[in-house]
Structure formats: C-alpha cells, structure tokens
Amino acid sequence: MSTSSELNKLWRRTLICAAIATSVIGLSACQPDTTDAQHSAKIKEVDMPKMPLPYPETRKGDVVDTYFDTKVPDPYRWLENDRSEETENWVIAQNKVTQGYFANIPFREKIESVVTDLINYERISSPFKEGEYTYFYKNDGLQNQSVLYRQMDDGEPEVFIDPNTFSEDGTVSLATVSFSDDGNIVAYMTSTGGSDWREIYVMDANTKEFIGETLQDVKFSGLSWYKNEGFYYSSYDKPEGSELSAKTDQHKVYYHKLGTPQSDDLKIFGHTEAEKHRYVYAGVSEDNRFLFVSAANSTSGNRAFVKDLTSPDASWQVIKDDITTDVYPLTNVGNTLYLVTNHDAPNRRIVKVDANAPGVENWVDVIPETEHVLSPSKAGKSIFATYMVDAISKVIQYDLDGNKIREISLPGVGTASGFGAKSDATEAYFTFANYTTPTSIYKLDIASGESSLYNAPKTAFDGSQYVSKQVFYTSKDGTKVPMIITHHKDTQLDGSNPAMLYGYGGFNISLTPRYSSTVAAWLELGGIYAVPNIRGGGEYGKAWHRAGIQLQKQNVFDDFIAAGEYLIAEGYTSSEKLALRGGSNGGLLVAAVMTQRPDLAAVALPAVGVLDMLRYHTFTAGAGWAYDYGTSEQSKEMFKYLLGYSPVHNVKAGVNYPATLITTADHDDRVVPAHSFKFAAELQDKHTGPNPTLIRIEVDAGHGAGKPISKTIEETADIYGFTLFNIGIKNL
C-alpha cells in the first residue's frame, strides 16, 4: 500500500522506539471496562512486611575500561553475553525470585481480573481500500493478535490473515502489510518473539497462495510497491556473533522482483562506503513516478534523494544533503513534489519544488511554519494539517496551494490522528481518543469537512466517572511544563492517593492524550495517572527536543522530578504513594531520577531501559541514538556528563532506593536486556533497606511491539500488584 500517508508515517518513525511503537512501552493501546467500584475509597492500607529477599548471587568480574584518563569498572560485563549458559541461569534464578514475590501479593489475581475485563472488548481499525476489497483489523477482545479482515461492498467480512495461527502462544506477530497497485498481491512481515528482525511473505490476495520464497533477515523496513511488479525494502547484513546484541551499522535498500529469489534482489542504496548510513528507507510515489530515499545516521536528521522511475537512465537527485534537519515527502502532483520539513522551521512547514531541481534553494512554502508543531497527511486533493497545541490536536484542512479550507471539528479535547487516503478518495477516516475516551473512528467527507461516527467501542469503562485536566508547573530552571492528570471525580486531594507518573522525554516523541485499557485499569483501581510533556519530546517542536539532549539531558530529569514534586505539593499524592514509570528512553528517565532522588517516590518501574550510558552505542543500532545522548567516545566532557547520570554507574552503596521492578525481555534486540541485567545487579548488591529490587524478564518477547494480549495482561497485573503492595495496600 504505497500511499502517501504510509510513506509519511514510515519516514517520521523514530527508531529507538517503533514500540518505543508504542513510545509508551508496556501500556496497551487497547481498552477497558468494569465498574467504578474499585476507586480509592475501597483501598485499604497496611504496613509492608520488612523481610530480606534471597537475591541470586551475581558474579563480579574484573573488567575495567579507561575513558580518557578515567578508569571505570564494569563488573557485570559478562551479563552482556545474553546467550551464554551463565547468563541464562542468572535469568532463570532472577525470575524465580521475582515470581515468588508476586505469588505473595494477595490481590494480584484480582488485578489480573480487572485488567482482563478492561481489555476484553471488540476493537477494530479504520478501514482501507485495496483492489475490490475493504480491509480492516479486528480483535474480539482477548485474541493475542488482531486479525486482518476483508469484505466486498455490502458483503460479509472474511478472515484474510490471522496471525493467531502463526504460533500457539501468540508470540509471532503480524507487522507491516502492503498491497500491490491493483490489490491482487500482498506482502507482509512477521516478527518472532518481539524481535526487530522480520520475515517477508508474498501472497496472492485472491487465492491466498504464497508466491516465491520467504524473504529473511529484514530489519527496520517498510514495504513499498512499484506497480504490481515488486517492492522495495530495507535491511542490514546478517550480523556476526549474537543476533540479539551485535552492532547493525550499514542499512541498505533492496528491490525484490516478484518470482525471483532473494539472492537476486537488487541493492538500490546504501551498499557502498560512500552511501553508508544506519537507517535507510525507500518509498514509491502513489503514481509510481518517483522513488524517494531517506538516509540517516541518527534518529534526527536525514539526507533525502529522489529518482524518476519513468526514465531508465535517471540518476539520483539530491533533495537535501544537510543531515542536521529532517525532510520527507507528502505527495506529488506531476513533477511537483510536496515535502514536509523542519529545515529552517523547527515546528515544520510544507514546501513544494520541481523534481528536476529539488534542492533546498528551490523550495517554496505551501504551508509556512506556525507557533504549533505540524504533522500533516494528505487525502484526496486536500492536506490535513494536524497541529499540537499544548499536546492537544487541532486540525486544519488546506488545498494543495496552501489555502485554508476549514478547521475540522473534533469530538472533544484529545488526540486526533489519521486523515490519510489516496488521491482519488472522497472520504477519509480519523481516530479520536483521550485518557478517559476509548479510541473511536470517524468517517470524514473530504468535500464538506463533515464527519460522522464510524465505530465507537463498547466498553464497561465509564469515562464520565473520571476527570482529566491539564496543568502547567515550573521546572528547576523556571521552564513551564504541561502535564495532564487523570483520576476519579470523587478523589480527594489529601495526599493519600496512589499515583503513577509516566514519562518519556526524548527523540522528539510527543506524549499526547490517548486511551489505554491498562491505564484505565489503574484508574479503576483507585490510582491517579499523570503524564508531563517534558523536554526532549516533540510537543513544542525541535527546540523543545534539543533542550533535552546530550549536555542538556539533565533538563529532562529535572522536569520529571518537578512533576512529581508538583503532584505532592498539590495534594494529589505523597512520596510514600508515588510510582515512577517509563519505558525505553523512559526507562532511562525513571532509573536516572530514582538514583538522583531516591526520596521522591515509593516505587520505580523502569522498563526496557537504556541504562548503561557508556556502552549503549556498542549494541545493535544504538549508535544511532547519539543525537539524543552523545557517546562516551565523543569527548571528555561528554563522557563525564554521561557518567554523571548513567543509572548503572550511579547506584550508591548504603542508599535506600524505592521499591524497584525492572522489566525487560530476552529477545529485545533494540535496547538489549544487558542494560537491565547490569542495573538490577548493581541495585541488589548496593541497595540498603527493606524495599525489594527485582527484575522481571519476559521470555519470547522483545521491545514491546507485537506483544500478545496474554503477556500484556500478566505483565500489567505483576506491575500494578507490585506497585500497590509497596505503597502499603492490603487488599482491594
């Protein structure tokens, strides 16, 4: 499905996360139910039993690294060998202790029941047209993976691809799905155990018979068809050594012609030293005229190229060779390219340029930059410009000349997304949600701008019983930071409420209001849920992002600490009732804050975190994160700065840290589990006090994308049980 909207999403994707896909790792994008009977008035407190835990012994090695003139011990380097027998035995022993602890939480099963009830409802996706069929995804409620359905006009839906049949336990998931121009052939990717490495299957969409061989060893890739003849995809050479942790540095674009073996696939870009980049993507324009390539060495900034596919002898034309800013194609009309960029526009703008001379010097504004961050899509002959106004969606419809047609009326205050469709479309679909409103789908008439409800999920979660409001608080350096706080409408702000502070703060990723059934479960259990839009994210454009990177990274931690202090000062909670949660880069956030301010919260929940800041760039595609973090090899100043906050290196002996549950997965090949292993070992060795410091290591799972519903339920019950137990809850 080589639509402009698909290509836009592909080029905008930030690679540390793809489930940083959900950037909110561990929080299902699904939905909730039950009654409000579990809100805070029902919670009973008890003093936590104080008893030492029998942590497994973790061997200390004698590895010492020298950075400039500083020697840094790395006693747990051996845990980086994630496929060794010694590490495997350590994982088994750690999980045994952790699961034994969970078994003694008296209300864990009740929490699992609440979470299960809230996830158990029918969810469908926005429909999309391919050939003679309309396709959509649906999950009946507790299916581990959503099923791809299709139907003819006025026909009955039929199962097209059911990923629940890929494996018995639901650990093989369906990833990208892309159709040929006529809709008669489909290519789709699968992921095993949550791995970023994928396989590509090609199938006749009419007979459902497979075509040719399965393509192997594909990673960080889109699927972009050229007519009905073949498709472009991206990958790295198969790494030597451990597939989980080996570096993957040179990304390449290939073209696969139908009916030929993968060994004959043409290398299109990135296969020479001169073209060496870590992240390279290709996309074909909707009219099959142009091939676009984006080439980047980090998660911010790219070079961009275009080639005219109608001319066999055409060469690559440079759109932008400056790698410090971003650009991606929105659409084209004949030879005119429409591009989205933050070049000379930190909040993004849309420009147009002739494909024969596409360089920056020839760009002409179509929709200039405004004070709000722009995320556009195209449907029919219109551009739908979605703006973030203090993390809240506002949508303006423009024509292709940049003339405003109208503002699109939204159902409320929250996050609207979608609005993409092919050039001949007369209607488009968008979704709307916030923290108390389950994700609903709306059909939009492009000509009139009128929308109608297409699907609203039927859940037992009663959002009317909860309030969600935005506040602005002051960070350490005086910066105003927005935060959305959600809780039951009867909650008394007397400091006694369990509260979860969730954050990310990196890679230009924005945390906008979205619905999650697992968050709804926390609310139903009487908790307060707070999400600050801290620096390092993209809520206020590139400037907000840059204010939280490299030598400014402490701003991110200060913003998060100030959010916790605000919740305490305003009576939402207390230090004894506060939990900190975040995943991936957010796992770094939580771990850094708990080591800097161990008194701030009672519970810390760092998930799949980047925790060894001196060595993160030596694993998989980690070197591509240097734009945000810098590296220990970059300079003495950068090394000292990283050492100053790296969680693995800042666990101090004799400190009483919060009750800590580290979560990771044995197949995480994005943020390798060694980060979490080493942090857990340091905590268990040095922590003083009664609080548990545990690690939960999911088996046959990765960074988060494609996680089965069954695993999501189990993990959520464990995390919430651990949290409530360690803030003194006796029963629910």
Task: Describe the fold and architecture.
- With 732 residues, this protein is of the alpha+beta class.
- Among the domains are: 36-117 and 461-731, Rossmann fold (3-Layer(aba) Sandwich), CATH 3.40.50.1820; 375-458.
- The strands form ten sheets. An eight-stranded mixed sheet has the order 33-34-36-35-37-38-39-40, sandwiched between helices. Strands 4, 5, 6, 7 and 8 form a five-stranded antiparallel sheet that branches.
- A hairpin with a 6-residue loop joins strand 7 and strand 8 (158-161).
The end-to-end span amounts to: 48 Å
Kindly report the spatial arrangement of strands forming the biggest sheet. 33-34-36-35-37-38-39-40
What's the architecture of the domain at 36-117 and 461-731 in CATH terms? 3-Layer(aba) Sandwich
Number of helical segments? 11
Q: Can you tell me the overall shape?
A: globular
The CATH homologous superfamily name of the domain at 36-117 and 461-731 equals Alpha/Beta hydrolase fold, catalytic domain
Beta-strand portion reads: 25-35%
Describe the largest sheet: 8 strands, mixed
Q: Overall mean pLDDT score? A: 91
CATH class of the domain at 36-117 and 461-731: Alpha Beta
Rounded Rg = 25 Å
In helices, the fraction of residues equals 10-25%
The count of strands amounts to 41
Q: Helix/strand/pairing class, anyone?
A: alpha+beta
- Uncertain residue segments: 1-50
User: Which fold name corresponds to the CATH topology of the domain at 36-117 and 461-731?
Assistant: Rossmann fold
Q: Secondary-structure map with pairings?
A:
Blueprint (H helix, E strand, L loop, with lengths): L3 H9 L31 E2 L18 E4 L2 E4 L11 H19 L4 H12 L3 E2 L3 E3 L2 E7 L7 E5 L6 E4 L10 E8 L5 E8 L4 E8 L10 E5 L4 E3 L3 E6 L16 E6 L8 E4 L9 E6 L5 E7 L6 E6 L8 E4 L6 E7 L2 E6 L7 E6 L9 E4 L5 E7 L2 E8 L2 E8 L4 E4 L7 E4 L8 E8 L2 E9 L5 E5 L10 E9 L5 E9 L10 E4 L14 H8 L3 E5 L8 H6 L7 H16 L8 E6 L1 H12 L6 E5 L18 H4 L6 H10 L13 E7 L8 H13 L6 E6 L10 H17 L3 E3 L1
